[in-house]
Amino acid sequence: MIDLYYWTTPNGHKVTMYLEETGAQYRIIPVNIGKGEQFEPDFLKIAPNNRIPAMVDHAPEGGGDPISVFESGAMLLYLADKDKAFIPQDPRGRAEVLQWLFWQMGGLGPMAGQNHHFSQYAPEKIPYAVDRYVNETNRLYGVMNKRLADRAFLAGDYSIADMAAYPWVVPHERQGQNLDDFPHLKRWFEEIRARPGTVRAYEKAKEVNPDQAPMSEEAKKIMFGQTASVVKG
Questions:
Q1: In degrees rounded to 5, what are phi and psi of residue 89?
Q2: CA 217 – CA 233 distance, rounded (Å)
Q3: Which residue from 14, 113, 117, 206 has the highest number of Cβ atoms inside 10 Å of its Cβ?
Q4: Are 140 and 83 in contact (CB under 8 A)?
Q5: Which domains does the chain possess?
Q6: Where is the GST N-terminal domain (predicted)?
Q7: CA dist., res. 23 & res. 5, Å (int)
């Protein structure tokens, strides 16, 4: 059994996509980041960075005490290695998946996240910042589109690399992107969207956070006003 500390964000969706694909037994523990629940001391013990998702595996490989893991990419890799699923076992195939997993963690996620912040949430719309991150998101979409021109998925077969990237493409319209400009990426996106595991994962999101209301001003203060003081608990 896995305890998944989760909220309905792109990084949260990555892990539910994996767990639904594998049919794993897991329990969602909602962490409402708009209310500041990620700063609770008990959560800090599991997730030192005060971010969702995080998880506790109560049945780790080889037995022993439960293992806690934070950071969505590390969680996907941990689960894939444990299950020997959605990551090749040969060195070349594994390297392909790891490159694209780390590409998402270091590029697509952070750049699209800044895109969201400056275009959607910042109290002052700074044209330079908006253009910087909309353009970089566009470049990264172009990288994916070129990669997918001659293969079905980012690293060959469907893998944790695709699960990591897909949720960050879901809000493409909010990111100022048109998927019609990226036909190979659009084909990939639609194929993953139709997978039963993806459908179930996003249905879980609706159960956890049915309102999906726009972020309130109070939530913005909680989300975007953090300093080192939040990790002293």
A1: -95, -15
A2: 25
A3: 14
A4: no
A5: 2-85 (3.40.30.10), 91-193 (1.20.1050.10)
A6: 1-87
A7: 18
